[in-house]
Design a protein that fits this description.
Blueprint (H helix, E strand, L loop, with lengths): L1 E6 L3 H12 L4 E7 L2 H11 L3 E5 L7 H10 L7 E6 L7 H6 L4 E4 L4 H13 L9 H11 L14 H11 L4 H8 L3 H15 L4 H10 L10
Helix pairs in contact: 2-3, 7-9, 7-10, 8-9
């Protein structure tokens, strides 16, 4: 059973998400929080698998709450999916850098929300379809001078190649076709790369790909 915590200051939004999630045989809502402080307290108390975190909340915003969760080693298995009203919300970039596994717009289709919850639990966190490349472009636009690539020293050439493809927004299936390997092989390479770099999920691999200079602006095509 996948346990989800809903963090949103609008009770109607929480009620809608709860009705959808609780209707699934493999998902249950473990708790709700109307603000960031309460969300943080309940995450520590309930240890949910996934937190659906609104960005704009009172007392402590979703960005700060996400950072505190992802920086707490005791909560390393908790995945945060940021919820936003606008696809290009100015805080989304920093939310991903802070360790969020991805983000969804609030008016996303119900099936996509369910897919996202299940995906982050499996470690295959992806950003909303149609938004991934725009967010990566934002990473590219804001990226600083590439950091030293020492962090990539442990990677094999194939793992670097796979990481670069993740960095330009390709899925496991797309990576498999590009490298002429099976999707399972592609997923294995991605997983090993994440372990070696200490990345929580694919979203952080994107960040590391740009910050290390492995991928550079203009590679999106």
């Amino acid at each position: 059973m996948i346990r989800v915590l809903l963090a949103d200051d609008q009770s109607l939004v929480r009620a809608g998400f709860r009705a959808l999630l609780d209707a699934q045989p493999d998902i249950e809502v473990a708790g709700e929080a109307p603000d960031g402080e309460e969300a943080l307290r309940k995450v520590r108390e309930l240890r949910p698998d996934v937190v659906l975190m609104d960005i704009r909340m009172p007392l402590l915003d979703g960005l700060a709450a996400t950072r505190r969760i992802t920086e707490d080693t005791a909560l390393k298995d908790v995945r945060v999916v940021v919820l936003t009203t606008f696809e290009l919300d100015e805080y989304v970039f920093e939310a991903i850098r802070s360790g969020a596994s991805g983000f969804l717009v609030k008016d996303t289709e119900p099936e996509e929300l369910l897919r996202a919850v299940r995906a982050v639990v499996e470690g295959d966190a992806l950003l909303s379809p149609g938004v991934t490349r725009r967010l990566i472009a934002e990473f590219a636009a804001r990226s600083k001078e590439p950091a030293a690539a020492d962090a990539l020293a442990e990677l094999t050439e194939r793992e670097r190649e796979v990481m670069a493809l993740v960095g330009i927004g390709l899925s496991n299936e797309e990576i498999a076709r590009r490298l002429v390997v099976s999707p399972l092989t592609a997923k294995t390479h991605v997983s090993r790369t994440m372990v070696k770099l200490g990345a929580r999920d694919r979203a952080q691999l994107v960040v590391l790909a740009y910050e290390s200079g492995l991928v550079r602006p203009g590679w999106l095509g």
